[in-house]
Amino acid sequence: MITVIKNRQTLYACSIVFVFGFILFFIGTDGFTAYTAESARVTKLIENQPEFPEVTLEDSEGRTYSISEFEDKYVFITFIYTGCTTVCIQLEQNMAQVYNQIPREYLGQEIVFLSISFDPTRDDPAMLDKYKDMFKSDGETWRMARIPNQVELDSLLEKFGVIVIPDGNGNFAHNAAFYTVDGNGSLVDVMDFSDIDAAANKVVSLIEAGKGE
Amino acid sequence: MGQVIFGIVLLIALMIPPVATLMESVMIIHMHMQMPLLVIAGFFIARFFLDRFPRSFEKYNQNGLPGILLFSIIMIYWMLPRTMDEALTLQSVELFKFISLPFLAGVPLRDSWKKLSKVGKSNLITVFTVIFLGLGWVYIQSNDQLCNNYLVIDQMILGWGFITMAICMVIYLIYTLIVDPSQYE
Q1: A10: chain B residues, CB-CB within 8 Å
Q2: C-beta separation of A63 from A148 below 8 A
Q3: Chain B within 8 Å of A1 (Cβ-Cβ)?
Q4: What is the pTM (predicted TM-score) of this model?
Q5: Arithmetic mean of pLDDT, B56-81
Q6: In this complex, is the C-beta atom of A29 within 8 Å of any C-beta atom belonging to chain B?
Q7: Which residue of A has its CA nearest to B142?
């Protein structure tokens, strides 16, 4: 297929094109690692470690507080909406399995689980309370909350790279992952929600590394 | 000269914000209409460069290979989910799209296509057919959202668009094999 290279200039031109192409793809995919914007976003997030903003959470018991309620504890977070019939169910089921893998004594002491809804109009405390029962969440060591203030909610979603696209039928398309926030409110890890064991192991080692100090 | 003006007008028309936003709002129109149109605009504008620098093109692109290579690299680059997504989120990437597709893909295509032999042209189309089939399959069967700016249903439509294009190219290839135009002269 390769036609004979007729002269040296053509050879140079081909080489330059190859090098240019290589550099272009290298930059464009962050060293051939990220072919989707999502993987690029996650890598960048973990590098930047953004802080959880001062928003007001309202949980399934109707209690209101900010993230400082969980100061000095790790917070394992997912973003959901109760009307979701697709990925959220799997996401929360997996979250429940990670929850079950955490040693009893850490739950509530070293780490708290938190599911945040990005649909505050539909997901009021009563709705969240029913939803949490589906996954056997106790509402204490694993809380489900909404952020009633839309502006505050949007700032959190933007900071943590949670992309939510309403599809016009009351449903949302959104990316999904496990977010780990440390005791100072900084995002330290974003994990693939389909790998339960890896997530549980990572979280437990974070806790144990912190305790060793 | 007329075609160069036409190419420039086409390019400017595609760059106007409302037009660009409208085309980019639907995934398959973004990739299978806006991007090809940008290449076509460059194709027409190429006449200006070909008239101005004929010797350079003759020297560095004698058999058309470097040009077609550059064209292919730019085309494949813009078919990646990430780059299409970033064109919508980063201004710099969007700008690069409007520059690279006409001038780094359209212009080389114009110069290289006529220099390729019949076999070379068929080979190029075959390569792109394979790429389109592969990419189309990836976009169709992927359950994760590949682009943050588009829904999963959008990427499935795009995938089928790729397959359809690949089928058209296969039909063309069969035509070139079977039909001998000189018999109809």
Answers
A1: 60-63, 65-66
A2: no
A3: yes
A4: 0.71
A5: 89
A6: yes
A7: A36
